[in-house]
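Continuing the batch. This is chain 6 of the set; chains 1 through 5 are on the previous pages. Same settings as before, nothing changed between runs. Recording input and output for traceability.
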Amino acid sequence: MSSDQDRDSCELAIKKTLAYRSIFKYPLSKYQLKTFLITGKEYRNKVIEGSIEHLTHRGFIKDKNKKYYLPGVAPVEWHEKKALTKKILTKNGKVFEMLSKIPWLSLLAVTGSVAAYNTRIDSDIDVLIVVRKNRLWITRFFVTSILKITKKFPNTDGEKGKICTNLFMDEKHMTWDESKRNIFIANDIVLMQPIIDKENTYLRFLNSNRWASEYFAQFPINKFQNQKFKINKNKAGNDLSSPILDFIENIFMKIQINHMRKKQTTEITTKHLIHFNKNDNSQRILTSYEKALANRKID
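Output for chain 6:
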């Protein structure tokens, strides 16, 4: 590909990226643009820098305090959002510390608006949790108990300031279902921020979801491809073959599933996965993204 073609395709990727972020009215710094560029190929820094400069000079993208966005978008205050997000995470530090003591909890990562540093004062905190093999339901019991004790368990969907455990998954089942892969999920994966991370589970999660690089080739997912991660088998929390714990796990699973059935709609509850997707915004976001591209003739 010639240098002109390279720049043209990079400029298109920048427009697509800012079109996606326009849904949330969120401007991107140059670093964010480079890291979270919507593209199926990687670009050299020089090409990205030149493309940003050219698009800004031509008025195709706007620049306010070195934060970039599309014309016609009234962007949120980037630094205010960042400060608010840090305040929310710091405020919940002790709760996260308590959750980290659960021996079968391998990864807790914030997702959604908190991970994107685009929180509101009334935001909740969406989290993804990965647990040890065959310890999903016992872990959920302790997570829920701690959140209720600390008054951080949401009684309603999207409750202000609460920690919403939308997704639990077994560490042996971290790969996203192929039928549910799209740019919305890929974006959540590259933006997620690990708060609790044991035994390199965050990197193993990325390694299990390398498909996201089809949308975000600049994000360093592929650096973890085929990497071998050493797991400490001697840790008590990694005891996967305890018959007593297996028995307790099965009992907890039956009790919790029976309780959930009273209110269950579109939630997924299996031995290896719990996904509360009642307020799934993915289709709305994907539709808004298509409209943003069409309205600005970005293709």
